[in-house]
Amino acid sequence: MVKNDELKKVQKQVKNFVSTAEKDFKKLVDKDLHGLVNKFEKEKKRIEKVVDKTVQKEVKKAKKFVDEQMKELSKLQSQVEKYVKVSKKAAKKTAKKATTVKKATKKKAAKKVAKKSTKKKVTKKTTKKATAVPKKTQPKKRVLANKTQASKAPAKKK
User: Is 135 in a helix, a strand, or coil?
Assistant: First the structure.
């Protein structure tokens, strides 16, 4: 019986020791878990700051690059506009010269057509029976002798 009582005491002590060890272990794990969570949050904030700084630097670089490109484009556009103005002036001068030449060729063509239309057309008499009705002849289409006018395209108006 004495051994039995001692055995029960030892069992109680072991149970108490195990339960206290379990509690201590849970406390440590909870503390460590909270500590780890806090460490992760701090590290997360630090990394976000670093990323934000680098992103801001890259955005500034990109804006600077875009501004430089816009300046170059505006310079090129102004140069192109200058060349367009010069070419428009040259085109207007050549268009004026071409219209005077066209007018002269039109007058020459009109005189030739007028001369051709004054000639009389000779019709042959048919030797068919008297009952047949003579056919009416259709006027022939006039052919322009000078086709240089058609080959030139008219100047575009803007």
Answer: coil
For residue 149, CA distances in Å to 106, 133, 157 come to 8, 43, 18
| Cα dihedral value 107, 110, 112, 117, nearest 10 | -160
The predicted model scores a pTM of 0.36
| Structural contact between residues 156 and 94, judged by C-beta atoms closer than 8 angstroms | no
Distances (CA, A) of 152 to 87, 113, 148, 158: 20, 20, 7, 18
Are the C-beta atoms of 137 and 123 separated by less than 8 Å? yes
Q: Is 5 left (phi over 0), alpha (psi -120 to 50) or beta?
A: alpha
- In the chain (158 residues long), the average pLDDT of successive 10-residue segments reads 79 93 88 86 96 96 97 95 86 68 57 53 56 59 54 62
Q: Distance between CA 149 and CA 106 in Å, rounded?
A: 8
